[in-house]
Amino acid sequence: MDFSNKVSIKEVGPRDGLQNESEMVPTDAKIEWINMLSDSGTSYIEISSFVHPKWIPQLKDATEVAKKIKRNPNVTYAALVPNSTGLERALEVNIDEVCLFLSASETHNKKNINKSIADTLPVLESVSTESKKANKTVRGYVSTVFGCPYEGDIDTDKVISICDKLLTMGVDELSLGDTIGVADPAQVAKVLEELLRYFPKEKLAMHFHNTRGTALANVLVALDYGITNFDSAVGGLGGCPYAKGASGNLATDDLLYMLHRMGVVTGINEKNIIEAALYIEKYVKNLSSNQMKILKSER
Amino acid sequence: MDFSNKVSIKEVGPRDGLQNESEMVPTDAKIEWINMLSDSGTSYIEISSFVHPKWIPQLKDATEVAKKIKRNPNVTYAALVPNSTGLERALEVNIDEVCLFLSASETHNKKNINKSIADTLPVLESVSTESKKANKTVRGYVSTVFGCPYEGDIDTDKVISICDKLLTMGVDELSLGDTIGVADPAQVAKVLEELLRYFPKEKLAMHFHNTRGTALANVLVALDYGITNFDSAVGGLGGCPYAKGASGNLATDDLLYMLHRMGVVTGINEKNIIEAALYIEKYVKNLSSNQMKILKSER
Fold it and tell me: Where are the strands (E) in chain B, listed by range?
């Protein structure tokens, strides 16, 4: 096993976590919570989504959240942006990084974005170009890379083609999502083996879900391939939209436990992350991390 | 990553799982359940424990269980045996394999067995010798290899010395336990690196707990070191005795999901294991596997 001793964790709880909660967390609580995360030593927080509120009402307060949080100069504050209207809103509140998203599965993309992949790409290209003009970095989420709830296995060539298009339009980093948490370590090795023939490892981040318990094993393989960027959500927030009650996003606290014990430096204080998980726990249903289960047992 | 395409899974649910349940499962249910497991394609089931019933009342029916289960000739039926009285009972019902146990931590051993390690070893040696005379194979559980709830880190030299003594007294296989589920993949690599200098990999099995979510990542590393024997419990049965509500034994169903998807052959039918988990779920509290959470979401 050969791995970098430094890893960047991108905290996606406030966006990917909260968008899967049935109830909206009060805006003031979100702000206080994000401020706690800002003080944890993390270098990156995806704070919300500028999609139309009718699609994700839980995040309809994106503008207010972005305006009222205390900005830590060491943190990149990112948000999801689906189109030019969303970008306008994101730029108004001076978001640091713009996150685009599409799916590697045609069916999933249609169900999620209401457009074919071919029709999504020009929209993303225009958002990317405008973001760059505004001196923003751009991140591209590619979902269902390791399997789709509708189509099953996804051809890696399709993933490569989409990644190539995103990088060509100026995207700075790709986050490869195991949206339904089906990936196994051998598959992660196989997919990365292929992708790294075309793309430098610095351009890739992994976004694993722990639905079937394999997320940390998958992280381990990605580390071995030189990947140093990982997405995760405080407390395993958000659950799985395709299996209610199951785990969704890899929990930041579980990821930190493994990485820190392995001697990998993240810059993040585990205690602060646990405090942030305990804080948001009052407002949500779906905390599923192992560290939170242990904490609850000690109460 | 380099791993064997064939792995043996040792099902410890009926012993290690049920001994951590607060209520005793009715004997008839245990028997039917073990019969289901016998038909799953598994090659090994640890069916009970011949410790004194006052210590583990949940398993006081070991003799009746052993007598009444239907023996599949392809399955090794094992049981925990603490001393010569236990061995007598185990031999009476013709158990195939005798499992000894002790801890790599002095304090944990004292709390668990009420003896020092030095005082435990001669007892185990006598049980091992008598088992061999009765043509039984012998397995040795070494617990707290990766950390102790009382002593913290355990010196690997201590583990090596205990393993050496067990093998010298004729033990056929050692099961190295992460009793409180603290191990991380780098630690597993480090410990195996040392152990494999002294012992052939065929003599070692890994017994991981998933308390902090790292069990499958730890399995992956052990696979990479050529280990092909892993303990697990159907449905993640049993929980963690040191953190109520947290996960304990690595779940057989989660392990099968990962291994089979990686192309590793176990001979075990996943559907049968899920059926066995659904069966025992009626009697227990602590099913914590990811596969069971997904199943529940689909009901």
Answer: 8-11, 44-49, 76-80, 97-103, 137-143, 173-177, 204-207, 229-232
Is the pLDDT assigned to residue B297 strictly greater than 90? no
In a domain, B3, yes or no: no
pLDDT in tens, B32-91: 999 999 999 999 999 999 999 999 999 999 999 999 999 999 999 999 999 999 999 999
In this complex, the residue of B184, B247, B263 whose CB is nearest that of residue A258 is B184
| Domain that includes residue B151, residue range | 8-298
Q: What pLDDT score does A33 carry?
A: 98
A5 vs A27, A185, A263, CA distance in Å? 37, 20, 7
Q: Is B121 exposed, middle or buried (0-12, 13-18, 19+ CB in 10 A)?
A: middle
Chain-chain contact of A184 with B261 (C-beta, under 8 angstroms): yes
Could you say which residues from 200 to 229 on chain B have a Cβ atom under 8 Å away from some Cβ of chain A? 210-217, 219-221, 224
User: Residue B147 has what DSSP assignment?
Assistant: -
pLDDT given at position B245: 79
CB-based burial label for A2 (10 Å; 0-12, 13-18, 19+): exposed
Q: Measure in Å the smallest separation between the Cα of A70 and chain B Cα atoms.
A: 32
Do residues A196 and A159 lie in contact, with contact meaning Cβ atoms separated by under 8 Å? no
Closest CA to A68 of A8, A134, A14: A14
Q: Alpha helices, DSSP H only, in B39-137?
A: 62-68, 84-92, 106-113, 117-133
In a domain, A78, yes or no: yes
Greater confidence (B239 vs B214) lies with: B214
**C-beta of residue B1 within 8 angstroms of C-beta of residue B262:** no
Is some CB atom of chain A closer than 8 A to the CB atom of B2? no
**What is the rounded average pLDDT of the residues B108-124?**
96
Beta-strand pair B44-49/A137-143: unpaired
Are B198 and B160 in contact by the 8 Å Cβ rule? The answer is yes
Question: How close A233 comes to chain B (CA, Å)?
Answer: 15
Phi, psi for residue B205 in degrees, rounded to 5: -125, 155
pLDDT the model gives residue A204:
98
pLDDT for the residue B98: 98
Is residue A3 in a domain? no
Query: Do A100 and A124 contact (CB within 8 A), yes or no?
Result: yes
Total domains in chain A come to 1
Q: Is residue A1 part of a domain?
A: no
Question: Over chain B, what is the mean pLDDT?
Answer: 96
State pLDDT tens for residues B222-266.
999 999 999 999 999 988 888 887 889 999 999 999 999 999 999
Task: Report in angstroms the alpha-carbon separations of A106 from A114, A117, A155, A162, A187.
Answer: 10, 6, 11, 11, 20
Mean pLDDT for A185-202 is 98
Question: What's the ipTM?
Answer: 0.96
Task: Tell me whether residues B185 and A297 touch, CB distance under 8 A.
Answer: no
Cβ contact B217–A212 (<8 Å): no
The CATH number of whichever domain residue A186 belongs to comes to 3.20.20.70
